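Hi everyone,

Forwarding the result from last night's run.
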Amino acid sequence: MSSRTLSKRKQLYLARMIMQDSTSFSAIAKQLRMSRNTVKAYAKKYLEYASVYPSAVFDKFTVHSIGDTSLPLSARRQQLIAYLANHSLSYPSTILNSWDSYISQNADGYQYSQFCQLYRNWLKANKTSPPKPHNVESIPAADLLQLKSWRSSANKREWTRAVILLESYKGKSSREIAEKVDRCVDHVRYIINCYKKDGLTGLVKKPYKVNEIKKTWMLERRDNLIRLIHESPKIHGINRTSWFLCDLSLRYEQLYGVSFSSSSISEYLKKEGYVYRKAKEVLTSPDPDFRVKMENIKSILQNLTSKEKFFSIDEFGPFAVKIKGGRSLVKRGEKKTYPQIQKSKGFTICTAALELSTNQISHFYSIKKDTEEMIKMIDLLLQKYRDDDKLYISWDAASWHASKKLVSYIDNINGEEHRNLNHSPLVELAPLPSSAQFLNVIESVFSGLAKSIIHNSDYSSLDECKAAIDKYFLSRNQHFLLNPKRAGKTIWGEERVPSTFKDSQNCKEPKFRC
């Protein structure tokens, strides 16, 4: 026999012709173009093997191992070939389980690492896949229907579980399924094992049980913390004007004897909506008569009659008409930009008055903020509400809201002679505390206006921008005419807070720039 080993394909073809016992060695040698002695040598090996293992299957792996005449076929190799040929691996068997079975029958057989290598070669020669012990064997009809429903749902959690089980049932490996659902292999096998153990009930998310004792304890911590931040640090002997997280942590432990870390305090404050910068920026008024003025406004609103009106007045702007930035929906990965340096298409100021009992807006445009504009607004309100008995005017402490000229004008229109001649209502001022623009209710309306039609805008002209503002206020007024409600419960559009006076709210958007 030639020292050169035949290819696996040629050896397999030779073995099948020999085992058929219908062709002579000379005919086989002539057909395969090899010497008659070579055919005889291979035939001797195959026939010896077949006499020892009559039920063995001749495949590429087997015939190559038998036909390799460069080295004699060892007894261990013969045992392994016979085992693999006569013992097909079935689910849920694994290579380790197969080796245990093999070694129990052949005590002097191959060790695990050698067995794995030879076993994989055998699988490759037979073009078969290794067993998949983690696959789902069967799915009942009811479960199959439910899994198909989960797969078509918008719930990502249900979709993932449905895909894992259905693909596993089709025979896909855990690694292939993991790549499809973008999860790790361990998670895929965990879901499959849960289903095997408890069915679909093992995959349904169990309701979270609230520990009432812990819930009460957390609420108590929250109340104690809020109570503490409402007090000045100086009351507790800390020389600061505002609380720091480290100070809160230290003082809380001193007061209540319980450790409360700075990071935990930060999380509590975020959940309650507290932000340091906003609080220091807009929720402070140095006016010594702050409480007196606020109580006066609340008293007026509580006793407001049907023939009296209360107005919150302020100016929006000045703002330029140009491309504006803002929050908007964009595709992930894209960046929305606008030029920093632009040529303005015009600018304006919108002066508006919000009537709190009917939620109606009155407004006009100007190019300056001064006493003349405030007189113009008062004249507009006197004309529009001439059938009422009294108009209350509330605005912030800007200089043109309290000028001598304005006070003199109000005294004049409140005179008996003027009122009898023009049949006009009485005008009374109810000013806000100084530096308390955040309490001006109309600022809430302006915030909604800015978010709706100013942010992300690119108006072609000043007139187009004014038309959009007019339409916004018109729609708002019509809404409250059809749905009459006093300001304070139902607000319009994207206004930040209810349109009501409250000393703990912030009506104005911080750092809004036009």
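The beta strands are 308-320, 347-355, 360-366, 390-394, 426-429.

Cheers,
N.
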